[in-house]
Design goal:
The protein has a 7-stranded parallel beta sheet, with helices on both faces. It has a 6-stranded parallel beta sheet with strand order 10-9-8-11-12-13, with helices on both faces. Strand 4, helix 4 and strand 5 form a beta-alpha-beta unit. The longest helix is centred in the N-terminal third of the chain and has 19 residues. It has 2 domains: 158 residues, Glycogen Phosphorylase B (Rossmann fold, 3-Layer(aba) Sandwich); 166 residues, Glycogen Phosphorylase B (Rossmann fold), CATH 3.40.50. The chain is of the alpha/beta class and 341 residues long. The mean pLDDT is 91. 44% of the residues lie in helices and 16% in strands. It is built from 14 helices and 13 strands.
Length: 341
């Protein structure tokens, strides 16, 4: 059976689709629509057929026109029997046009709040697969948020040894697969001013990597930094605190590793990251700082409290463990595949 998985350009869209594709590729022809040149390499190395033109710029008007005709072309010439959209405007027309062409279509919404594109598409698709439980959405089934296959727990001392770290606390700054200028600046400011001993893991994203490399090469602190790092299991396993955006995949990984977190949702994106972050906050499973009214002094106090107030740290971990969140790959695969058969 020919199955088209339509994604947007971020890892948060691509990796859940890749997880599913690896499970269903036997006896099926899998087509990927993905527009990130950087992330396409992870699809191609698994020998999937990758479709989709990448743009070096973002122009809404041009992209809408191009994606519309691109979707028609791919649907007519590849003739998929099933289409699953994984969110984002790049995948919108595949699901919409697929439905109008009487192809079985589905969408996956990993976030607490359903995105605008998926909200429109929900009227056309056969089923909506959800990451977070939500009984108010019709045609929906909760399938959870799948972790990548390489995500596994490693003993903390072993992970620290791999990174060349000692037993000191480890703080992990992470702005998502494409990086975050705000979190990058925050990490540099924190490292410059922190007055206690700790170790830093920092994923910078590609855009600002060389600027940050220059900064870290001039200071005498234990830091592991990369623009992108596939073996995230090492970084999470070594960490005592995660400071990150609040995409659904990141939250699923924080949940799996049971790590205290300070979440700084992206101020754009129609509020889905804010909703994700406050889901954790309302359950007392994470701390939230909003970028628009961010207080660095308050941030420093909270970081120190999480690292050195063991009772506070353990309460965060307990509440995190109690969340109603599923990250099992088998559950994700089984609940989706029965609708594809």
């Amino acid at each position: 059976m020919r199955i088209l998985l339509a994604t947007d350009r971020s890892a948060g869209h691509i990796f859940p689709a890749l997880t599913l594709a690896k499970k269903i590729k036997e006896n099926n022809k899998i087509y990927f629509f993905a527009t990130s040149e950087f992330l396409k390499q992870y699809l191609s190395r698994d020998e999937f057929v990758v479709l989709g033109k990448s743009f070096k710029f973002r122009n809404l008007f041009i992209e809408i026109i191009f994606r519309f005709f691109e979707a028609i072309y791919i649907i007519l010439f590849k003739r998929p029997k099933k289409i699953i959209g994984f969110g984002g405007r790049d995948s919108f027309f595949f699901v919409l046009l697929g439905s109008l062409f009487c192809i079985d279509t589905f969408i996956y919404e990993p976030n607490v709040k359903i995105g605008r594109a998926n909200k429109v598409l929900s009227y056309f698709v056969k089923k909506i697969f959800l990451g977070f439980p939500n009984n108010s959405i019709k045609k929906a089934i909760t399938v959870g948020i799948p972790l990548r296959e390489n995500i596994k727990r490693i003993p903390k001392d072993e992970a620290k040894r791999i990174l060349g770290f000692s037993d000191l606390p480890v703080i992990f700054f992470f702005g998502g697969s494409q990086g975050s200028a705000f979190i990058n600046d925050l990490a540099l400011r924190f490292v410059s001013q922190v007055d206690y001993k700790c170790q830093i893991v920092h994923l910078t994203g590609k855009k600002e990597y060389f600027k940050i490399e220059e900064f870290y090469n001039k200071i005498d602190k234990k830091v592991f930094f990369k623009d992108f790092f596939y073996n995230m299991e090492i970084l999470y396993s070594a960490s005592d605190l995660v400071i990150s955006r609040s995409g659904a995949n990141t939250l699923a990984e924080i949940f799996y590793y049971n790590l205290p977190s300070i979440l700084i949702p992206h101020p754009l994106g129609f509020g889905h990251q804010k909703e994700n972050a406050f889901y954790f906050y309302k359950k007392k499973a994470g701390i939230v700082f909003l970028q628009d009214n961010f207080s660095f002094e308050e941030f420093k106090k909270v970081v120190e409290k999480i690292l050195f107030d063991k009772e506070f740290q353990e309460n965060l971990k307990k509440n995190l463990k109690d969340l109603d969140l599923t990250v099992d790959i088998k559950n994700f695969y089984n609940n989706i595949y029965k609708f594809l058969c």
